[in-house]
Amino acid sequence: MNMTSRFSQRIRLRHLHAFVATAQQGTLVRAAQQLGITQPALSKTLNELESLAGERLFSRSRQGAELTAAGARFLQDAGRVLDALNVLGRTVASDSEALPAPLHIGALPTTLVSLVAPVVVGLQQQSPGWRIQVSTLANDALMMAVRSGQLTLGIGRMSDPSRMEGLNFELLYHETLRLVVSPHHPLLHADVTLAEALSWPLVLSPRGTVPRQNAEALIVSHGLAVPEGCVETLSVTLARCLTLQYGYVWLVPYGAVRDDLFGNHLRALPLPTQGMAEPLGIITRQEAFTPPEQQRLVAALRQRVLDVPV
């Protein structure tokens, strides 16, 4: 039996799901939690897959599991297989008059309030039976999940060309950062400086994210440094609570606080944040099947941005 025959006869769906989950999550611990299995079981499955493939697909270390060049190529093929199975599943469900599978999308936490929520509400009001699952992910994980076929589409940021391989990006808008505080914060005065703002407890995005890179660029451009002891989180709920109830300063993408600013629930400090606009849009996989539900969602996202600029 040659290697190709051996691979095709012994590969199982559990191998593909284990591989894609690990590629998406970046660590075996989180991937095992996502799959609902133990870490040793996941490690065994990945070892079986690499043995079948005859190549190392991950470079593993204490920091996590990073795709090798062979792993990156395999991820594209694994995504096509899983996408084909999803299409087949929809066909079977349609033939048996079962409910259609929900549309599964991913979105950055900062897009949920001003963009995703009103679009979802509008579509469900038009079609009460319309089903959708929304996962909140960081941008790298979001792109990975779209590429692998786990997500139908993602609402995220444009990344480096090498990371966008196999993906399409449709621009929706450019987003900037804001420094926001509670409505009666002592920093709300005309002469406030960035140094003064950074002397207060600070909330900002975690290291490795685009908003964090832009925040650091802003701070460094003023000859300052990111304060020690700041809270780093992607959770809009936590950051909003810290800002409203405990006096924190929140350095945040505008879309996450747009409605709060319009309603005067939060206030933006009168400080310049020019030069930090990020392209944000719809991320899809090239040559992927496009169901009618996805087409309606994309059209609604475009219309939302036209009706209420973010």
Automatic annotation (TrEMBL):
Superkingdom to which the source organism belongs: Bacteria
Record carries keyword DNA-binding: yes
Name of the protein in its database record: LysR substrate-binding domain-containing protein
Pfam family, one: LysR_substrate
Domain HTH lysR-type: 11-68
Family from the record: Belongs to the LysR transcriptional regulatory family.
Assigned keywords, A-Z: DNA-binding, Transcription, Transcription regulation
InterPro entries reported for this sequence: HTH-type_LysR_regulators, LysR_HTH_N, LysR_subst-bd, WH-like_DNA-bd_sf, WH_DNA-bd_sf
